[in-house]
Amino acid sequence: MGRTDAVGWDEDGAWRTAAWRSGSGARAPRRVAVADDRMAADLAYKLVCEGTALLWRGDYHGARQLLAALGRRVDRKPPKQGATPRESFHLYRQARTRRARVLGMLLVPLETAADGSWAVPLRRAPRVGEACVEAYGAPPGPVGALTLVSLRELQGVLGAHEWRRKGVPIEALGGARIHPRHGVFSPVRGEYVDLVARAPLPRAAGAGSGKEAEPGTEAGPGKEAGARPEAGADGGGAPGGEGPGGLTAFDIGTGTGVLAAVLARRGVGRVTATDVGEQALACARENVARLGVAQAVEVVRADLFPSRETGRADLVVCNPPWLPAKPTSVLEQAVYDPDSRMLRGFLSGLGERLAPEGEGWLILSDLAEHLGLRPREQLLEWVSAAGLRVAGRLDARPEHARATDPAAPLHAARAAETTSLWRLRHAEDRPAGEPAPPAVPLGPASDER
C-alpha cells in the first residue's frame, strides 16, 4: 500500500541506496543527511524545513525525542484564523499539511532480518515485525536489505497494530470489539454506529405488517433518544414484515465492517458490505468472522454498490467521508471526500438499487455546513435530483474532546456539529394522501444549539 520508490544518500564517504516506502504517497526525499543523538533540535528543524530529510542512526528513543522537539517547533506558529469558517478551515488544512511534511522528514531504517521479518536496526528499537507485515506485507529483498520510512509513519503502524490487537469496544454490539487494521478508519466516534443501531428498520419488500425483532444489542422500539422526523416526514420506519430476517441490506464503504455487523446483530437476514481498499476488505472479513455474523454478511470489492446481479436491497446504508476536501493519506480518505464524490455517487445510484418501500440510510455530519464547505440546500437538491425524498432523520451530538474543548481548532464549528441519519426513500413511495414535496423538499433543520 502507499508509495514505493528508491532513495539515495552519502554516508561515511560512500553512496548508499534503499527502498522508500510511504503509506501517504509522499515522494522519496531528494536530499538525505545522516543524523544521530549529537544533532541539536534547532539544526534538525532548520534542515527539515529546507527540505533535507534526516536518516536517524542513533538511539531509537532519541529519535522519538527529536520528533517531539520538531513538533513543538512547528506548533509555535498556530494556524491563522480566516475571515470566514471556510477560510479558517483551509488555513488549518494548510498548517496540518505543512506539519505532516516537516515531521515526515525524520526517517528510520527498516531491514530484512535474518529470520525474514522486518526489524529496525537501531539501539533500543521495538519489535516491529508483526506490525509492519500487517501494514506493508512481507519485507522485500534479501537479509539486510534496507527500506526507509518516516518515524511518524512507523509510529502510526505500531499504533494501528495495538488497535488491531486490543480492539475497540462497540456499545451497539453489546461491548464486543471491532479490530481495525492499519489504514482503516477506527470507529472511535460512536455516534454514527449508535444511530444505525437505533433507527427503525424498513419493511422487507412485499412483507406485511408485524413486529420488528428486539435484538439485545439495539436500542429497541421506543428508545430512540434524539430521534425526530423532519417537518413533513412520515415519522418512523415501517416494521419488518415477519421480523427483520427477511430484509436484505447493502453497507456501502464498509471499512471495518462495523455497520454491517450491527445490522446483522439486529437480525437483518442478508448484508452485502462493499469497499475498494484491500486492507478494508480484509479487515471487514476478519471482524464479521470474529463477531459470528459471517453467515449473514458477505464482504465484496466494489466501488460503491455491489454488482447488479446482487439485485436491490430493502436497506442501503452509507457513512461517506464527511468533508469535501482532498485527503493527504490513506486514513484521511475516510474523512475527506474530494468534491463530495462518494456522497453524490451514493445518492445518484441509490434509487435504482433500492427495493420498493426500502430505505437508504445516509449517515452524515453537518460539520461541512458549519465550515461553509457544503450548504444544506445542496445536499437536499442532490437528494431531490436523485428521485428521492427524506422520510425522517435521527440526530446525535458528538461527544469527542474537540467538540467540547474551546482551544481545539475550528472549535465553533465542532461545537455546533450534529451527526444525522437521513432516512431516504423513493420520491413516489409515500403514504396515501401525503402531498408531493417541493423541488427542494426540506429547508435547513432547526437544530437546537
UniProtKB/TrEMBL annotation:
Single GO MF annotation: protein-glutamine N-methyltransferase activity
Name recorded for this polypeptide: Class I SAM-dependent methyltransferase
Residue numbers spanned by region Disordered: 204-249, 422-449
Coiled-coil region list: none
Start-end of Gly residues biased regions: 233-246
Organism whose genome encodes this protein: Streptomyces reniochalinae
Organism superkingdom: Bacteria
Gene Ontology BP, a term: methylation
Keyword Transferase annotated: yes
Transmembrane annotation, as ranges: none
Residue ranges constituting the Methyltransferase small domain according to the UniProt record: 249-326
InterPro entries in UniProt: DNA_methylase_N6_adenine_CS (IPR002052), N5-glutamine_MTase (IPR050320), SAM-dependent_MTases_sf (IPR029063), Small_mtfrase_dom (IPR007848)
Keywords: Methyltransferase, Transferase
